[in-house]
Amino acid sequence: MSREERADIDRKVAGQTVCTLFQDAVAKYPNLDALKWKTPQGWQSLSWQEYGERVRAIAAAFVKLGVKPGECVAILASNRPEHYLVDLAALHAGAVPVTIYSTLAPPQIEYILNHCEAAVFVAENPEVYAKLASIRSHLSKLRHVVAIDRAGEIANDPSVLSLAALEGQGDAPAYAEVDRRWRAVKPDALATLIYTSGTTGPPKGVMVTHYNVCWTAESLDRLFPRSPGMRHISYLPLAHIAERMAGYYLHLKSASTCYFCPNPQQIGDYLREVRPEFFFAVPRIWEKLHAGLVAAIEKLDEPQRSMVKQAIEVSLQKVRLEQRGEAVPADIQEQAQNAAFITAMIRERVGLDAIKIASSGAAPIAPELIEWFFAIGVPIAEVYGQSEDTGPTSWNRPGAIKIGTVGQAIPGVEVKLAEDGELLVRGGNVTAGYYKEPELTRETFDAEGWLHSGDIATIDEQGYIRIVDRKKEIIITAGGKNIAPSNIENMLKQKPLIGQACVIGDRRPFVSALIVLDPETTLAWAQQQELPADFTVLARHPKVQGVIQGYIEEVNQSLSQVERIKKFVIVPQEWTVDSGELTPTMKMKRRVVHEKYAHLIEQMYQG
């Protein structure tokens, strides 16, 4: 069926580009709100017609600047309307937008700008420009710098222009050239380069074409159609394929209304204010939302606390029975219905009361966490994919979510397992390879069109995929036993006081763990225990050590002998993007954690 679906999708998207998706939305919904962002004066907005006019104006300015078709325009900015405007303007000028992570150091930015030979660099503000200033002399291909905010504060660089001033520089010939260029863009042209994290070497530029974007958007539209004006929030880095597909390209496909949250740490506040209908989050966001709700429940007075906990527990029983395919007894069905008003209040408290589509992706998520959100009426559909297949490989279908899996292949995509269990993927979402890296491309994309994902998986008889772990992250103990660390870490993170965990054991005689306390639940617990609100003290306190030891013993009961955690250390500092242990999409940087806490790890194995 997938091959027939692929052919049908191919027919549907023939000739489409990201530019045509955008122009279609502008023509069909000129007066609908397209972009919304918050200022000290309140929410501001752009209609689709205004959106189209501004994109055309910036594209004309790029033409006047001398940007040529096929050249790269680099962008380093937070989630804000100008990011979308510049990205689309570059595409309409026939150029290739390349978004750069704000967490990168100047040498890493230098590598990417030189690798893609960026002609223009769009910086959010003088602080971002300062990163560029230190490497400016090493960027021989870079001709212009555009500052979104406070360009006047950038001195001594005549190549710097303000976006506001640039936007007004287009003339009639430039506008005519923009109209000619976007219509001339071919589906096999690059829509963007996604630079991977480069944990095992320099970053690789994944070549995502217009065809890949339009094909994937059409496939997902068949999975869960999104209606014009549907509210969603853009808050994850646009340098990552997950946000680029879920927040940006699908927005163009469906003419949804995008609300910008410039700082992911503020997502809780934005959820309550925007009340999105579509919400994609990485596991760490779901974990933080869960921890905040659990902490709030613990602060309730009796009998409210017991009533809320009982409502969640009976709803959990119903979810687990349904997931096992068992009949739900009438008494549990009735109790769950009676609890519905309580779970509705929980959803409202967190801002998920209007949700229609909720998803989790970019890293493994604990099944128990999904069950908990199911119980409060937020059915999270786990999705799996990577930059090399434009974001999604598989997605749990609405109404057919199998918790613990990453769903079935999206429409038109084929999947199979290699002899060693590696998941292979083929479809119109599979990208063109790595920019300027023919050997690496051949290693990952074979001659038959299969993408070698690098993930070990299983596929059940209904086609549901379970990801075991990254092929390169499988722990092989000194005794030669294979262990998937992320599974154990997710089990640990379900315990109330544990926020993050890193399982150790590669070439070691036994498995150990680094534990990070969850700030919200731990502080609430510490207050009840009359302990100081100091994480350095709490990490060493016998009561905390005892609780964590109890958690370890509980988790060990569900593990084989070789997987069981023999020792642990509590790390007093939370792992964050800024402190370096997490990627911008909040996945753990395993190598960084191992290096940063090498002394603690060695202490666990001494003697």
List unreliable stretches of 5+ residues: none
Q: Which architecture name of the largest domain does CATH use?
A: 3-Layer(aba) Sandwich
Largest sheet: 5 strands, parallel
How is the largest sheet built, in terms of strand order? 4-3-5-6-7
Share in β-strands: 15-25%
Rg over CA atoms, rounded to whole Å, is 25 Å
In CATH terms, the superfamily of the largest domain is ANL, N-terminal domain
Count of domain modules: 3
What is the CATH class name of the largest domain? Alpha Beta
Mean pLDDT: 92
Counting helices, strands and paired strands, the structural category is: alpha/beta
Helix content: 40-55%
Report, as a whole number of angstroms, the end-to-end distance.
58 Å
Number of helix segments?
Answer: 22
What does this structure look like?
- By secondary structure, this protein is α/β, with parallel strands linked by helices.
- The protein has 3 domains: 18-185, 3-Layer(aba) Sandwich (Rossmann fold), CATH 3.40.50.12780; 281-353 and 356-470, Rossmann fold (3-Layer(aba) Sandwich); 475-605, GMP Synthetase, Chain A, domain 3 (2-Layer Sandwich), CATH 3.30.300.30.
- The chain is built from 22 helices and 25 strands.
- The strands form 7 sheets. Strands 4-3-5-6-7 form a 5-stranded parallel beta sheet. It has a 5-stranded mixed beta sheet with strand order 12-13-14-15-16.
- Helix 2 (18-28) packs across helix 3 (48-65), helix 3 (48-65) crosses helix 4 (81-92) and helix 13 crosses helix 15.
- The longest helix is centred in the middle third of the chain and has 21 residues, at 330-350.
- It is globular and about 70 Å long.
